[in-house]
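Dear support,

I submitted the protein below through the web form. The confirmation email said the job was done, but the results page showed an empty box. After a refresh the structure appeared. I'm attaching both so you can tell me whether what I see now is the final result or a partial one.
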Amino acid sequence: MQPSPLIIITGPSGSGKGTLLRALEDRGYFCVDNLPVGFLIKFAELLAEGAVERAALVVDVREGQALDRFPEAYAELKRLPELQTTLWYLDASDETLIRRFSETRRPHPIDATLPVREAIGLERERLDRIRSMADRIIETSRFSIHELRAHAPRLLEDHADTRLLVTLFSFGYKYGIPVDADMIFDVRFLPNPYFVPDLRALTGADRPVIEFMEAQSLTRGFLDRLRSMLEFLLPEFEREGKSYLTIAIGCTGGRHRSVMIVNALSKLADPARPIKVVHRDVGK
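What the results page shows now:
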């Protein structure tokens, strides 16, 4: 008998938890918003007994001090073999959260008397430990409410695959650090093809840039060490039950060095371990 899926959604206020929960409800999930932490185990037991086929819950700072008990409750849920329990943490930049609160004119649940930016900071402190436990961190700053609802089906398709889904993500530091990355490697120490006139207009996916990078002993040494580390880490993450791993590689502009390194690392993929490649800034 397949374990019943239980998705627990958390994150700061305004990150889109309610929107995602409604999208899950549209897809047949039994959904509960703001379930008290003290009821989590009892609810899980009912789910394990077949009361509902699959469920999703939102747990957040509206719990007050009871939220401090969530990590222990979640660890207990993860040990139940009848359930496939995962924790999804929705996040967004402070500026996005402030804008959303301004648009909705709602008070911040952590303290309606505080300025919104200060309340957001306090909320992040309360959620910091829970964020570190998340199986999936979803950055929603780039989504409107409608876009987040449309994005939910793809998230569910990814979730249905129980293998570790690795995403290799190239980016440029000048455009900002990706907030949903689990691991970030800075490759700005490598020789920069941008300063070679014949290579400047190309990208790290083009053969002349690849050959330039591969000719550098520093590049070869870095790649050898990083491959070795990932070959060790990926099976350990799988054994630990992690569903998603995002590895970000950053250079200055996200066009040459980071793209080449990500493409080189993507060769670690095999049928048992799919790897998704995203080049965020290559076209900028």
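Response: this is the final, complete result; the empty box was a page-load delay. The first helix runs from residue 17 to 26.
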